[in-house]
Design goal:
By secondary structure, this protein is of the alpha/beta class. The chain contains 10 helices and 9 strands. Helices cover 35% and strands 22% of the residues. It has a 6-stranded mixed beta sheet with strand order 2-3-1-4-5-6, with helices on both faces. Strands 7-8-9 form a 3-stranded mixed beta sheet. Helix 7 runs antiparallel to helix 9. The chain is globular, with a radius of gyration of 20 Å. The two termini are 26 Å apart.
Length: 316
């Protein structure tokens, strides 16, 4: 089991190590690929529940999110990594370091490519980077549901075979689930024998505050589309009990870099922020199992993407 560079909860590993059947396999899988190819959607489909936010805006994923797929004979720990980005900010440089570090510290890499869009320069660059790690690679040829004739994707599959020699290439649709079960089977085949790394009843090891913050950030990104998504950081200040047993107070702070962005996030008469909060609340309630009263504030944190102190505070 290759765990170099990947932090794991030792107590969780020990908790999941009892009564392990002979031949049980456990592996850490990095989900890699250029931005916007469907990595987070694939992670959610493999896990069977939402553990990573999904938007059409490239660069949405900022953390190496762990999703956990547990079967009777195996367990896969999935790292949903950000796509490599041009290192224009300290945040981008840190995310690139996070991505490359995760590739070197896993058992398998699942290279996700949007074959409906074709294999482009970004995919070629990523393939070269991945092959250089010497980590076993399985290719997920994603978004086949957008291809009308299967013969139309043959050129892309041939290109991928040349880019990642010897790798198994599986056509999948992360959106519909087609081929995802077969992909999981192949990933398990490449995993080493060993006990589960986590108890079998959890889907992710992300802290609750991070999960809630990501839900709200997703809704804000979708609401504002291309206006300020990469300048937003969401921080959950507190989750507090109330006088009602079925209600929690969740206090969130949305950080932006400029005063003008604050106005965009809030919207006219608070409409944008209110709508994002309304959309986030049901998912938060489903996660917490209680009703949620969501309080939001927007604060200006100038150039936070270049500020090491703030990046650390925001979890990057």
């Amino acid at each position: 089991m290759n765990t170099e560079g990947v932090e794991l909860d030792v107590d969780a590993i020990l908790a999941g190590s009892d009564d392990v059947p002979e031949g049980h396999r456990s592996g850490i899988v990095a989900i890699a690929g250029r931005p916007n190819v469907g990595k987070s959607t694939l992670v959610n489909q493999l896990v069977g529940t939402k553990v990573a936010i999904v938007t059409r805006v490239p660069g949405t994923t900022r953390n190496a999110i762990r999703g956990i797929v547990t079967r009777p004979d195996s367990q896969l720990v999935l790292l949903d990594t950000p796509g490599l980005a041009k290192p224009r900010t300290l945040l981008a440089r840190r995310l690139n370091d996070l991505v490359r570090g995760s590739w070197a510290g896993v058992d398998i890499i699942c290279f996700v490519v949007d074959v409906a869009a074709g294999v482009g320069p970004g995919d070629t660059f990523m393939a070269r980077e991945l092959v250089s790690t010497q980590t076993p690679i399985v290719v997920a040829a994603n978004k086949v549901d957008r291809i009308q004739r299967k013969d139309d994707m043959l050129p892309a599959l041939e290109q991928l075979a040349d880019l990642v020699p010897g790798a198994e290439i599986l056509p999948v649709s992360a959106r519909t689930g087609d081929g995802v079960g077969e992909l999981a089977d192949v990933l398990v085949e490449h995993a080493p024998e060993g006990p589960p790394l986590f108890p079998g009843d959890i889907a992710t090891d992300q802290p609750m505050e991070q999960l809630l913050a990501e839900i709200l950030r997703e809704k804000l990104i979708v609401q504002m589309r291309e206006e300020v998504p990469h300048s937003i950081a969401v921080e959950i200040e507190s989750i507090d009990a109330t006088e009602r047993d079925d209600l929690l107070d969740v206090h969130a702070v949305i950080h932006v870099e400029r005063q003008s962005q604050k106005g965009i996030v809030i919207g006219k008469g608070g409409a944008t922020l209110k709508k994002a909060g309304t959309r986030a609340r049901p998912e938060m309630e489903a996660l917490l199992g209680l009703h949620v009263h969501l309080e939001t504030r927007v604060k200006v944190a100038p150039r936070w993407q270049q500020d090491p102190r703030r990046l650390k505070r925001f979890g990057y």
